[in-house]
């Protein structure tokens, strides 16, 4: 028993397709492994059955060689498929597929990746239904059965990664349905390939490019093969290394799996490690809550994706663990504080919806040594996937590094005994509409514009600024907003305030008694700041008594009370005494010239600065009337 390939025919006057448009949409931006892992896990997580069990997803990597590969390709009816693929090789996409075919022949080896999920709905729906799991995942392009709800995906684009990551643009499906089918019995097996439009060898027949692996009813030219069911499907699945465990779910097999932008093909072990870490990086919320389990299997050996093995994500889960014990100020490492951020969702264009919603911000002060994802905010909503890690390193003052989680929609009450409210559901739907096809940020989208009334732009674009302002209250409460601090009246002035290669030529704003040039820039080779300057009194009647150089950290363009120690300072002005005293426990540079000095130049460097936070130069100059010689 075997399935066979059939390709949909079209008229010569119909539009031709050089490739799949949806594949190109999903390859925009981040076509690495990250996109693939996010999309396939999101699909399985969205299809989880409504029970207390998690969706279980196993990535199975196999490289078939020799007789095993030959038997596999025979079961795949590869000869029929290859006839069509070779006819499509006059397009760019077709050339890449032809190259993949040659590589497989030369190597006598083919890699397959099977994503097997359990406790999910399976490919429900009739073969020609208008809307179902089956038609959305297998048949249709840019249709989603999730449209209008608050699941992870809603564009119908994410599934395109399955064909994008197949060197042959060929994907097989085997599914056990969660609900009985009135006519057929699980499992359900079908295959789909997306080739460019091509003509038959004699040129008389035009094939649209979409091919199907399944069972044909009759010999009609261009008829679409349909799903194979029951024992026959089970037998073919075994030959295709696509057998399933008992229980509902779907197994998806990506034939000749590859990473489109990789410089070289990674071996199976390297791929497995990357998939495991990315599953944790982007789905730790769903895994932490017990909604999702992920494993990766290579040559029969399985490894569970565990947050415990990736401690860099524990600060985020600690935010949820310690939410009930939150504090008002982050005094100690490990302290967790929380705040509510308002999100006013406007009504929809039809007058429905609209709510005075809230987002929950949890901030945890970092421990020493927690470097990864430090000073980042994980944006999460009810789908359980991290939408984005928002870098807020510039907000931090001193050593108050942090990790934070922004919980939106149905995720807002996570970590408490509360249940989501009606307003949370409205916010969830709003945030879903604010995600582009890659679901990697909350921004103004066409879906928002088409669905919501005036005010949606202000709402979505205000989220990040509100997060930043709220963070400042926790990690930058003592920001120096430009005051100069105590001065010796009438004779101390600071000059120079430019950074990263900028220059200044400023006079004292109050007295016109000092002028000069200063310059500071970051040295990537030595990972420190380099600075230099020259100062002099404006009046010939005055002389310089001392110059003090300090380095000030910046946060969001504002000076802070945080200082970076000066490592070294020197001067080519004759008779200058140099020292490195401490001011408020931070080392500064100090220059004390000989009596009568009217101009002094200097240069120096900071200690190593791996944070590379924006830093400015502060030069305080003591001037006085010239002393008698």
TrEMBL record:
Region of interest called Disordered, as start-end residue ranges on this chain: 179-207, 477-518
Biased composition (Polar residues): 509-518
Domain of life of the organism encoding this protein: Archaea
Species lineage: Archaea, Methanobacteriati, Methanobacteriota, Stenosarchaea group, Halobacteria
Biased composition (Basic and acidic residues): 495-508
Full protein name: Uncharacterized protein
């Amino acid at each position: 028993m075997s399935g066979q390939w059939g390709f949909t025919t079209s008229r010569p006057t119909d539009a031709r397709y050089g490739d799949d448009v949806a594949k190109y949409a999903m390859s925009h931006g981040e076509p690495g492994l990250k996109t693939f892992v996010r999309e396939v896990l999101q699909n399985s997580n969205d299809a989880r059955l409504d029970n207390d069990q998690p969706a279980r997803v196993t990535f199975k990597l196999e490289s078939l060689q020799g007789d095993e590969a030959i038997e596999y390709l025979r079961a795949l009816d590869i000869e029929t498929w290859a006839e069509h693929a070779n006819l499509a090789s006059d397009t760019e996409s077709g050339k890449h597929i032809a190259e993949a075919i040659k590589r497989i022949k030369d190597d006598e080896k083919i890699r397959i990746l099977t994503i097997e999920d359990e406790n999910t709905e399976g490919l429900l729906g009739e073969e020609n239904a208008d809307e179902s799991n089956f038609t959305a995942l297998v048949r249709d392009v840019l249709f989603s059965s999730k449209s209008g709800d608050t699941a992870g995906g809603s564009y119908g684009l994410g599934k395109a990664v399955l064909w994008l990551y197949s060197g042959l643009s060929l994907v097989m499906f085997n599914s056990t349905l969660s609900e009985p089918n009135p006519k057929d019995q699980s499992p359900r097996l079908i295959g789909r390939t997306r080739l460019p439009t091509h003509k038959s060898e004699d040129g008389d027949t035009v094939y649209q490019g979409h091919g199907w692996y399944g069972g044909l009813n009759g010999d009609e030219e261009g008829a679409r093969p349909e799903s194979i069911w029951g024992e026959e499907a089970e037998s073919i699945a075994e030959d295709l290394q696509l057998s399933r465990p008992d229980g509902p779910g779907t197994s998806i097999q990506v034939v000749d799996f590859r990473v489109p932008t990789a410089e070289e093909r990674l071996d199976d072990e390297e791929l497995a490690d990357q998939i495991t870490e990315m599953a944790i990086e982007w789905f730790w919320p769903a895994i932490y809550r017990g909604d999702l389990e992920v494993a990766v299997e290579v040559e029969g050996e399985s490894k569970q994706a565990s947050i415990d093995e990736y401690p860099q994500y524990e600060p985020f889960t600690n935010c949820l663990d310690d939410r009930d014990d939150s504090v008002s100020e982050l005094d100690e490492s490990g302290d967790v504080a929380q705040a509510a951020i308002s999100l006013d969702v406007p009504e929809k264009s039809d007058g429905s919806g609209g709510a005075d919603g809230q987002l929950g911000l949890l901030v945890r002060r970092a421990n020493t040594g927690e470097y990864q994802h430090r000073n980042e905010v994980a944006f999460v909503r009810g789908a359980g996937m991290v939408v984005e890690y928002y870098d807020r390193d510039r907000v931090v003052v001193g050593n108050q590094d942090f990790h934070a989680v922004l919980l939106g929609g149905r995720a807002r009450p996570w970590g408490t005994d509360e249940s989501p409210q009606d307003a949370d559901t409205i916010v969830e739907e709003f945030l879903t509409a604010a995600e582009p096809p890659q679901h990697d940020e909350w921004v103004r989208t066409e879906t928002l514009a088409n669905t919501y009334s005036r005010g949606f732009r202000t709402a979505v674009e205000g989220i990040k600024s509100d997060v930043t302002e709220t963070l400042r209250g926790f990690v930058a409460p003592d920001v120096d907003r430009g005051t100069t601090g105590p001065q010796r009246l009438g004779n101390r002035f600071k000059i120079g305030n430019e950074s990263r290669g900028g220059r200044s030529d400023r006079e004292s704003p109050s007295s016109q008694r000092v002028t000069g040039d200063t310059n500071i820039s970051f040295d990537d080779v030595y990972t420190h700041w380099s600075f230099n300057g020259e100062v002099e009194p404006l009046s010939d009647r005055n002389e310089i008594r001392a110059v003090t150089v300090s380095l000030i950290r910046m946060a969001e363009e504002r000076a802070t009370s945080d200082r970076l120690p000066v490592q070294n300072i020197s001067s080519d002005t004759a008779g200058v005494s140099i020292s490195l005293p401490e001011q408020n426990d931070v080392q500064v540079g100090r220059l004390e010239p000989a009596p009568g000095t009217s101009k002094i130049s200097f240069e120096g460097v900071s200690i190593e600065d791996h944070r590379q936070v924006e830093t400015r130069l502060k030069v305080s100059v003591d001037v006085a009337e010239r002393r008698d010689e």
